Amino acid sequence: MRLRTEQNRLKIEHSIIDGLRPVLERVLRDCPEIRSIVPGVIRQVRDAKGPPRIRITVPVSNGWKAIALSGGARQELFVSTTMTKEGLEKRLSQAIEAVS
């Protein structure tokens, strides 16, 4: 069963790392240019301490792949959008600041 939130734009079929969900919901609410965000694989890492951080890594066919770090874990995010890398990074950092 697929669960979605924020007008069916955030897929919540799997878990989301600590502190990341409010950031994703905020960026979707404030940025209509983002069609959807699909959280992916979660892996434990040592350098993911403190508040959530999101780094855009590579372009994919319909947007960007990003890596989120928080609570001792990293999670892949697939962001469906036509935005540039710089524009998306700016929107994500604004959402992180607003939630913190």
Note down, in words, how this protein is organized:
The chain has 100 residues and is an alpha+beta fold. It has one domain. It has a 4-stranded antiparallel β-sheet, covered by helices on one side. Helix 1 crosses helix 2. It is globular, with a radius of gyration of 12 Å.
Number of domains: 1
* Number of H- or I-type helical stretches: 2
Query: Strand-residue fraction?
Result: 35-45%
The total count of strands amounts to 6
Helix-strand sequence:
EEHEEEEH
Instruction: State Rg.
Output: 12 Å
Task: Give a quick account of the main beta sheet: strands, pairing sense, barrel closure.
Answer: 4 strands, antiparallel
Spatial order of the strands forming the largest sheet: 3-6-5-4
Tell me, rounded to a whole number, the average pLDDT: 88
Helix content: 25-40%
| Class from helix and strand fractions | alpha+beta
Low-confidence stretches: none
Q: Indicate the overall shape.
A: globular
**First-last Cα distance:** 31 Å
Name the descriptors.
4-stranded antiparallel β-sheet; 100 residues; 40% strand; alpha+beta
Element layout with pairings:
Blueprint: E1 4-5, E2 10-11, H1 21-30, E3 34-44, E4 53-60, E5 63-70, E6 73-81, H2 85-99
Antiparallel strand pairs: 1-2, 3-6, 4-5, 5-6
